[in-house]
Design a protein that fits this description.
alpha+beta, Arc Repressor Mutant, subunit A, Dna Ligase, domain 1
Amino acid sequence: MSHYTWDYEEIIRAAGHRVTPQRVLILDAVCDSGGHTTLGDIYARVREVDRTIDRSTLYRTLKLFVELGLVVSADTGDGETYYEIAKSHRHHHLVCRQCRAEQEIAHTLLEGMCDHIYRAHGFRVETDHLVLFGICQQCQQDQETL
């Protein structure tokens, strides 16, 4: 998914922020990953182009992009926060704890669970990017053959 799918400049301006070359560069670096990317990877891509951008600028900018809905973030259980360009649809991920393989799943698979949580607890789930951990089919098969 490309950030060019969105009118990201208008989204940034409408929220009262300036569209700076540094912000565009950071958004490009998230997009260039083609999926989930770590802060360290984003930082490395940004620094290849502009060595004046420091980590604090990167942190603040990513936080802004998440708040604006341009980027989503997720903790995939390895102590890192991963970032990706927001998609036009809600989606979630299955992450294998053994091989780290990742699979995207549609939100429709979790709607029933969200409805049940609301009925049982009166809590409306608003997450649009959930990461579920487990063991993938391939790793399960590999374990069975041992």
